[in-house]
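Annotators were shown the component list below and the corresponding predicted structure, then asked to write short factual statements about the assembly.
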Amino acid sequence: MTSAFAFLLASRQCEIAELEQLARSCELVGAVARLVHALQRERGISNVFLSSRGQRFARQRREQQAECERAEAGLRQWLDALETSATPVGNGSRLFSRIALVLHALEGLPALRERITGHELVAAEATAAFSVLIASLLAVVFEAADSATDPDVSRALVALLHLMQGKEFAGQERALGARSFATGHIDAAGQQQWRHLIESQQSCLQVFADFSQAEGAPAGVASPPSPGSADLARLRHLGCTGDGALDSAFSDAWYETCTRRIDDLHADEDRLARHLRTLCERRIAQAREDLSDQRAVLDRLLGQARPVEPDAPAPLGRQLGRAVFEMAQTQSRRLQDLSGELEAARARLNDRKTIERAKGLLMAHRQISEDEAYKALRQLAMNQNKRLVDVAEALLSLAEVLPARDRPFDGAQDGAKKSSFG
Amino acid sequence: MTSAFAFLLASRQCEIAELEQLARSCELVGAVARLVHALQRERGISNVFLSSRGQRFARQRREQQAECERAEAGLRQWLDALETSATPVGNGSRLFSRIALVLHALEGLPALRERITGHELVAAEATAAFSVLIASLLAVVFEAADSATDPDVSRALVALLHLMQGKEFAGQERALGARSFATGHIDAAGQQQWRHLIESQQSCLQVFADFSQAEGAPAGVASPPSPGSADLARLRHLGCTGDGALDSAFSDAWYETCTRRIDDLHADEDRLARHLRTLCERRIAQAREDLSDQRAVLDRLLGQARPVEPDAPAPLGRQLGRAVFEMAQTQSRRLQDLSGELEAARARLNDRKTIERAKGLLMAHRQISEDEAYKALRQLAMNQNKRLVDVAEALLSLAEVLPARDRPFDGAQDGAKKSSFG
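Structure shown to annotators:
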């Protein structure tokens, strides 16, 4: 017969299991962050290599490839453990499909490198290929953040996701600038893309800065100007606002300024990853201690409840029942409170989901690509001077009045939706 | 070595496992709904029994108690299976702590019945005791709805939760009216409570009605007037708006009208529970079929990829790699889209979490009880003519400027929050 007692302890044990799973996700995110950073460096180096027609950075490229391989091996170790482990993974279906995409993209990496070595690609194409791979890695971090069950860990993961995304925009900016300074010119579309990268970067890093400030992190971690920031502003101004002619003498300064900045951001990533580890460890230790305290109290009461017949099954004495009730009530209230806080911490992830849904709607409705749908949304937001998520929400609220058209991937489900129940 | 192929299939398998778990949660909710209904009847019958000083409904009470015991045994069977099963439970920590509270409340039921038999309680006290037990059961349904991973199932569970909650308000209204008509009078506080029960009931049933309409359910399920509704309106008017003197001749009519209405709502519950079962079965069958289709395509390509050396490990041919990539991409997009839809389906649950958080804040800040905090929020909402959730949100947004005070249950966590990272 199941008892309140058994479920009270089972609840604590589940909580610990959930936290341990979260700790594993955080380790996975750390391994992803290291590979992303190595790939961003390789992308930057490959850009200089290609733009200089192989004259520069050939050695650095070889060294960086070896670095990437080490980081990849580190990630694969986590993935092997994940695939063979019997422990459940929160949000497994989405996480695993994201990992499948990462592994597919990694399988194409040797071929990409060969084509760069053979100068079969221009710098912009190589950048785009690396960026697709990195985007697939960031999507894994998104899923990990989305499956977090603890508000503090969730907040830290959301901050890390935005820091990584902001750093990725910084890496793309470095690549774009490196190409432009190396070739000595940039067109209007390039300048618009550059401004877009700066803007997106700042909005992502602001999320991280807000988090750092709220957590009382040491000053100067993120948004306050990092050294070289004045140089960066000057070089950006040259690149984005001029008539398109650029002085290639600034190539090195640009590359170094950006690299310093990206390395600073990477140091922040490392700090935040360590913070995440400490946070998980502390939570798990606390939950274990609470479980053991509860057990001790209940065992003592259980002992008192059966002093007469030591062999008989212990009846739940009135005092024990009361203790179980009070513990279960405190636990329920605490978990419910955490769950509410979690929703608040996830708000930014939900914004992203809203934007994704609106994009999907546009893609299905106008039969356009993902990229075109994103640009259309962005244009709408700029024209109306609204946030992207507000435009996305407005669009979704109109979904019902738009003529229905089956989306390719869930036609079967549409049938189910229209049927009546009962 | 882990491959994209392996993770693609693992993603599908996880999806199936998540759906199977959801199907089990829905069965649990069905068992909870049956016990709630039996207890609501017993509460109603006990009210008449107590108000008539044991003259009426003694036989019905015995029969209904047997009915409750059968329903309780049905629920305990599910709980036993849940406790001993090795399969993971989504949201286990919260669900289990809720179940612990239910089991504790059930342990007190025999004593409650004895006190009713011995007329040691007045009707209002007995009603309150049953209502606490039923509230603990509804909290289990809330957690089940909160852990749903499929948007259609989530929508149906949210509708069922509101239908059950609305029916519970209807049950409390029946009890209040039964007491009032039986004793022949009602005071102003009782009338206010009555109006509050009607209002809360309607807003819950509206959620269910919206869902039924969206799903194209047969007309007349919920919000449209059920037979006896004109009688109900007339009797409500007598009870809520007069000078407090009531004609006890209406006792039977009141009890029967309400009971008919509650039984109608229970029929809706049954239909919705069946709909949920069908929905889960259909989803699982579809996911299994998709998995087997994917496997067939990939096995065929895998066969084509190794015609030369049948014993060598199969290399992932270019065509196979492409197929894996396309499947993983479709799957990711579909799952992401579902996840966005899920957030939308959960919006009403999140409203409730917001209200819970605001309540918790008030309780901690003003050192008041849960009930007092709820009443304070409600009063604020009425004074400002705003929705409860909007007042709750406004309050939470002010949390930072309110003087900090450690909540009793997470003092340890507050320490962590204030610490810096790195």
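Statements collected:
1. Chain B is about 80% helix and 0% strand.
2. The radius of gyration of chain B is 26 Å.
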